[in-house]
Amino acid sequence: MLKLKRSTVLVLAAAGLFAASAGHAEDSNVLTKPVATVNGVGIPQSRFDFVLKQNMMQHGLSDSPDLRKNIKETLINQEIISQAAEKKGVDKSADFKIMMDLSRDQNLVNVYLHDYLTAHPATDAELKQEYDQIKQHMGTKEYKIRHILVKSQDEAKKIISQLKHGANFSKLAAEDSIDPGSKSNGGEIDWSPASNFVPSFAEAVQKLKKGQTTSEPVQSPFGWHVIQLVDERPLKIPSFDQVKPQLEQRLQQAKVRKLIADLRAAAKVAE
After folding, report:
1. How far is residue 176 from each of residues 26, 35, 151, 164, measured CA to CA in Å?
2. Does 16 share its domain with 69?
């Protein structure tokens, strides 16, 4: 059964709510029995239901007695602290007013974007088109390689010459490579499709045959590379159904970026 630390749920609840002190205005309009009362102030069922929904939708949590208990305890603690803060006059401070303005704007943004994505969902046709484009971009093979990265073309040429005279690739990588992610492993980069590499690097890899090393240095934004193809194999791409949730999220993000760009283009912004 799912168990959460109370502090974790506190964060989730706080993120899903409008500022606690602003919540008291809703109490007089709530006809249902409150989930709890604190010093005579009711915590509305609607607030509890909202936080539960946010935990389930945004954080992937499942409805359970433990989750409900923790949310209830969090809301009680939040109400206690909120009342103490109001008693101290925190709600009259300048910082609080600024935070309320920011909270209002952020909640407006969240609700607006949620409504927009609900009205403009990613269709199966769009998802499949995105899937096909990614498949085409990734290619049909993946490669296991070694490389040695140095700062200058002359250094790379010197290493190529040493390899031609029988030097050990892994040893040179450990000694000379400036790539911290691979030098301690003999310059090895585990199985990856060419699409994971920058264009010049990918092009060089795809021209090599198994066991071959580049005969000329390969330049990239990171420096100069000497590359050896250790092995290659057919690329296994996950099925559409396996990656559909990630594709949907990817397209939703793209839709939001376009919406923001369109709104900004139509707005009069002065700096």
Report:
1. 67, 66, 10, 16
2. yes
Structure tokens at 180: 């911290």
Its domain, for residue 16, covers: 6-96
How many domains does one find in the chain? 2
Phi, psi of 211 (to 5 degrees): 90, -15
Residue 106 to residue 100: CA distance in whole angstroms: 10
Contact 27, 33 (CB under 8 A): no
- Least Cα distance to 99 among 25, 169, 14, 160 occurs for 14
CATH number at residue 219: 3.10.50.40
Q: What is the pLDDT of residues 131-179, one digit of tens each?
A: 999 998 898 999 999 999 999 999 999 999 999 999 999 999 999 999 9
DSSP H or E segment with residue 191: strand 188-193
Within a domain: residue 127? no
Rounded to an integer, what distance in angstroms lies between the CA atom of residue 233 and that of residue 72? 54
